[in-house]
Design goal:
The protein is about 40% helix and about 20% strand. The protein has about 270 residues and is α/β, with parallel strands linked by helices. It has two domains: about 5-100 and about 220-265, D-Maltodextrin-Binding Protein, domain 2, CATH 3.40.190; about 105-215, D-Maltodextrin-Binding Protein, domain 2 (3-Layer(aba) Sandwich). The strands form three sheets. Strands 1, 2, 3, 4, 7, 8, 9 and 12 form an eight-stranded mixed beta sheet that branches. Strands 5-6 form a two-stranded parallel ribbon.
């Protein structure tokens, strides 16, 4: 990629300045699932140990994390909605996107499911059943990556849920933990990422009804913020972080993260 002269000058000055006065921290705007699963508490101390740079995480829904990045309130972004991430790059605020790990989404609901969704049914068929039988469904409704994924899955069955007219569809504008709690308390269905589900303590009589299919894959990307758009961004430290995140030893560390003997995240296999 050709780097414009002005971009190159900004990067050089950024590198010089941050070497002199880095303040020893980076601001990471992030989706909530990586924080709520305990992943950052597990992984980020390794980066600080190696580079003596703290990573301060601001965990919000992907949509809000991207808006915060556009407001220059970030050095780095980690999100899990590729289309939105690429728009950030196209707008000039993101330098590039590197996909570094994945897990998957799952449909959870009451184990005593009245429509018998558990017999290896596809996510599209499961959503058709929920729609046709007007079974209570909880949506995050918060413009997060999970919310965007859920809406794209409804679109696969040519259905656009509307909380105003579809009373069985509750859009609550909350994070994943609050949404899971509401689904459990109301005996309802919802889409969640697997890492948050594994970490969730209040499962009661809920279980996984649909899982392990390509439509439910959940890929995470890391994007350094462009110093041309945000002159105060710590470009040099951000590059260190991205390179460290993609290093083979870090990948091994990511793959080793487990809760109850279940691996939460998987590094992308090289082609």
């Amino acid at each position: 990629m050709v780097i414009r002269i002005s971009h190159f000058i900004i990067i050089v000055f950024s590198m010089i300045f941050t070497n002199l006065n880095s303040n020893d921290f980076l601001i990471l705007q992030s989706t909530t699932s990586t924080r709520d699963s305990g992943f950052y508490n597990f992984l980020l101390p390794e980066f600080k140990k190696k580079f003596n740079i703290e990573v301060r995480v601001v965990a919000v829904g992907t949509g809000q994390a991207i808006k915060n990045s556009e407001n220059c309130d970030a050095d780095i972004l980690i999100a899990h909605h590729k289309e939105s991430e690429l728009k950030l790059i196209d707008s000039g605020f993101g330098l590039y996107r590197k996909e570094f790990m994945y897990n998957d989404y799952i449909l959870v609901g009451p184990k005593s499911d009245p429509t018998l969704l558990t017999n290896n049914i596809s996510i599209e068929s499961a959503l058709e059943n929920i729609h046709n039988n007007e079974l209570l469904f909880i949506s995050r409704g918060d413009d997060s990556g999970t919310n965007k994924k859920e809406l794209s899955l409804w679109n696969k069955i040519n259905f656009i849920p509307n909380p105003q007219t579809h009373k069985w569809y509750l859009s609550i504008g909350q994070g994943m933990g609050a949404s899971l709690n509401m689904a459990v308390n109301k005996n309802a269905y919802l889409i969640t990422d697997r890492a948050t589900w594994i970490s969730f303590k209040n499962k009661r009589n809920h279980g996984i009804l649909v899982e392990n299919e390509p439509l439910l894959y959940n890929f995470y990307g890391v994007i350094p913020i462009n110093p041309e758009k945000c002159p105060n961004v710590k470009y040099y430290e951000s590059e260190k972080f991205v390179n460290w995140l993609l290093d083979e030893k870090t990948k091994e560390k990511i793959n080793s993260y487990k809760i109850n003997d279940q691996q939460l995240f998987f590094t992308k296999i090289k082609n």
